[in-house]
Amino acid sequence: MRTDLTASYGEERLPRYTSYPTAPHFSAAIGADTYARWLAELPSNASASLYLHVPFCREMCWYCGCHTQIVRRDGLIAAYQQTLRSEITQVADTIGRRIKVEHIHFGGGTPTIMAPEAFAELMAEMRHAFFVLPSAEIAVEVDPRTLTAEMVEAMRLSGVNRASLGVQSFDPVVQHAINRVQSYEQTASVVDMLRQAGIKGLNFDLIYGLPHQTIASCVDTVRRSLALAPARFSVFGYAHVPDFKKHQRMINESHLPDGPARHDQACAIANALKEAGYVQIGLDHFARPDDAMAVAFEQGTLRRNFQGYTTDQSEVLLGFGASAIGHLPQGYVQNEVQIGAYQHSIADGRLATAKGYRLTEDDKLRADIIERIMCEFGANLADICARHGAEPEAMLQSAPRLKSLISDGVVRLDGNHLAIASDSRFLVRSVAAAFDAHLDPGKQLHSRAV
Q1: Domains assigned to the chain
Q2: Which in 69, 72, 242, 333 has the greatest CB count within 10 A?
Q3: Which residues on neighbouring strands pair with residue 140, listed in sequence order?
Q4: What number of other Cβ atoms are within 10 A of residue 400's Cβ?
């Protein structure tokens, strides 16, 4: 990797491009009526993925960028779970048939904060409302500090076959600085419980750029994680945005690594995982060579959505819960962020859509280009433009940011085929941003590029 480019591009605030256009461009002009119409217009052969957001935790991790709140009373969680069930019924009734479902993902917050029986009821509701395929991937994000054996059993009985474990760092100094103390032994115990229950698809989430983090502590976390042999790793750079996430003000900014140090940490983690035999996938994922995600990467079928990189091929993502985002062929929709407002809408028999975005033909073209860049570190502009009835030359002319990326050796352009240099792949977000017609560099809405 070329460290000389970090100073040039690394401080830019850029999207992670889990969608295009990105969420800051959503508008209240898209509401419940529009969403209902889009649902009713879905093709008869459409399949869908489901995302369920559970916005509760027992305590706040100071690095967190999610929509979540701290709860002590389980009654609030139980009431929310009932609202989720009602929303599932409303959406299914609006579609008018049991649409096929290939992926289900529980995110948060801490989804496993629900009572085991409530989780099982929610899964049963989804199977009743939708045709969940026997081959469907059902994934749950897990906090190893609070997962119980009873919840693992409920997950097993409900058909869960993948779990994502938040690890972040095993360095106790870092853990205390981010208010997330989690021992290696706790994590190992949860891994053992999940595997004994037959949930063998395990992902570990790691973060670099945290306070007091060093290259040595990053590599040590990787070494200890490898002993537990997860199938996949997600490795994210900490996004410090205290103006948007007030709890991040608890982190002492003077203890955060600077741009070059973050770059070195990311490189060290990537090198350690690749040396252990994992395949680097896109911006921030790593997988064993025989894992479905690695296979999709090799075959050029990898996709990207609000959960990051995925093997999911569905063109429809239905989001449930407060702040949840959905994606349909017509555009994006997002539910009310505030839990009370979300619950009030559903209780009144209305879809909880608060804002969204209607895709234009140009948006769809650029979204395809950006997704291929994020997934494959390159894009065949001729093929993509042909599918959209556009000319690649016009698309290149509309991307003036490419000129500096090409002159700096970050990008190679062979005719209409764009490829990121192997030593510059850490700047994939910068290359994708060249095709972002909505990007406003003056607004600090996103995390640093490196």
Answers
A1: 1-7+360-439 (1.10.10.920), 8-320 (3.80.30.20)
A2: 333
A3: 106, 163
A4: 9
